[in-house]
Amino acid sequence: MDIAVVFELLGDYNEWRAVFDEDLPAREQFSELMIAGPLDNGQVAILAYGVDMEKMAAFMGTEEFAQRTSKFHGPPTIYQLSDITPPH
């Protein structure tokens, strides 16, 4: 499944980005590709391709994940994407 994850950024983007980048090995277990970046309105968008939603939910649902990320954002909004080809 391909999705977009959008959330309001509560903390510093560069600090959040460092945590996001550190999670690459874990994200590779449930997604083929994730691209993240800030939006103009104080939000961050993550485009995720080939996502195993069950595995992603298990990763994001841990107390450890919540402790590392809660200072940066609240609950995300997840949108299912269709007919989008990931960049190569």
Word description of this protein:
By secondary structure, the chain is an alpha+beta fold. The protein has a 4-stranded antiparallel β-sheet, with no helix packed on it. 8% of the residues are buried.
Highlighted features:
single chain; 88 residues; alpha+beta; Alpha-Beta Plaits; four-stranded antiparallel beta sheet; 4 strands; 33% helix; globular
Percent helix, as a range, is 25-40%
How would you spell out the order of helices and strands?
A: EHHEEHHE
Helix count?
4
Number of domains: 1
How would you sum up the major sheet? 4 strands, antiparallel
Q: Average pLDDT across residues? A: 91
- Strand pairing plus helix content: what structural class? alpha+beta
Question: How do the strands line up in the largest sheet?
Answer: 2-3-1-4
What CATH first level would be assigned? Alpha Beta
Kindly state the number of beta strands.
4
| CA-based gyration radius | 12 Å
Q: Can you describe this structure in just a few lines?
A:
This protein is an alpha+beta fold and 88 residues long.
SSE arrangement:
Layout: E1 2-8, H1 13-22, H2 24-27, E2 33-38, E3 43-49, H3 53-60, H4 63-69, E4 77-81
Antiparallel strand pairs: 1-3, 1-4, 2-3
